[in-house]
Amino acid sequence: MPRMAELAEAELRSQADISGLRNLLRAVAEALALRPFIATRIATAALELARNAVEHGGGGQARLALQPSDQDISLMIEITDQGAGLVEGSASGLSQRQAGKAGLGLGLAGVRQMADRFEMKTGVAGTQATAWFGVKLPMERWDEIASQATSAVQHFLKEQDHPAQQLRQLTAELAERELMVGEVHHRTANNLALVNALISMELRRAQTDEAKEILRNLDLKIRAIARAHAHLQHAEGDVIEAHSYLRQVGNEALALARHDLKLSLHVDAGDIVLPGQLGLDMGMVTGELMTNAFKHAFVGRSAGRIGITLQEEGGTLVYRFSDDGAGLPPDVAPHRSGSLGWRVIRAIASKHSGHLDVDGKAGLAVELRLPAKAWTTTRA
Description:
Layout (H helix, E strand, L loop, with lengths): L4 E8 L2 H18 L3 H21 L3 E9 L3 E10 L25 H8 L2 E7 L2 E13 L3 H18 L3 H43 L3 H26 L4 E3 H13 L7 E7 L4 E3 H21 L6 E11 L2 E8 L16 H12 L3 E5 L5 E6 L10
Parallel strand pairs: 7-9
Antiparallel strand pairs: 1-2, 2-3, 3-5, 4-5, 6-8, 9-10, 10-12, 11-12
Helix pairs in contact: 1-2, 1-4, 2-3, 5-6, 6-7, 6-8, 7-8, 8-9
């Protein structure tokens, strides 16, 4: 069996040292041609150990090596600190020095789950945590792989202060961040799809019209959130293109109208883009108003029209919703009612310092005016 190939040792005293370890791991990952997900998993676990060593263990040292086995090759990462040691029998891996602190990231429990093998030694002189990660490379290429990794580390250490190297590091960090964000988006989308599936199952089992209506409204809300999430995933930055998003939310809401009611929907938001959270909120407002129209505006009718516009007027963002339904009696003010839908709309208006106005003389017309500070961060 070949001997372990030592790659590097690095001091861990500051946040700058943690960043240096990140870049060193990236150089190793490039030399080994690791898949992005494997490289990110290794870096995430190693940096968690390093951060705890710096922030809670009085500093320490990192050691990287390639370790051979009968079948494949592992990357070993060893982090040693100089702290007070861990609480005996602590399942979560929180040390005495960490007690009562928040924001500890993954913690040792998370690192254990990410590593293929994990060992820890602790005492009054400090803690040594060692994690092994399979890199999916065959032992038949050991000499070649060990040589490539060693050379890459040596080259990295020589050029890490060169401007071109710094630019490459920044580019790689952005790519790594995009990979992690993409993974979060993927998992969020899956979770939302699961929630929708569960709602659909319950909707098929519901016995009363009231229960069915509640579930349909809930389904619409989740779909609006999922649609906003999809727009954010494919947008450049945390913004939502308002026209296509509101149209999609509106079209999905139309599916909730009764089958004998034919509705036409007109949406015009121009080329306005909204901050992600505001876009999500506008989708929620749209869903609530359309649901309200289905229930109250077109009673006894077989057809109707709904219009949604979003435009800028003197720096103010103006959202308008209208239908050609029955309108409202003079003494009725639905926007002051205690219904859940209108409470949601009022809360969103208040959240963005907006002004809400409702007119029921000729159909229902709802206007929500939002000040510049609520949306201008995304304008050119």
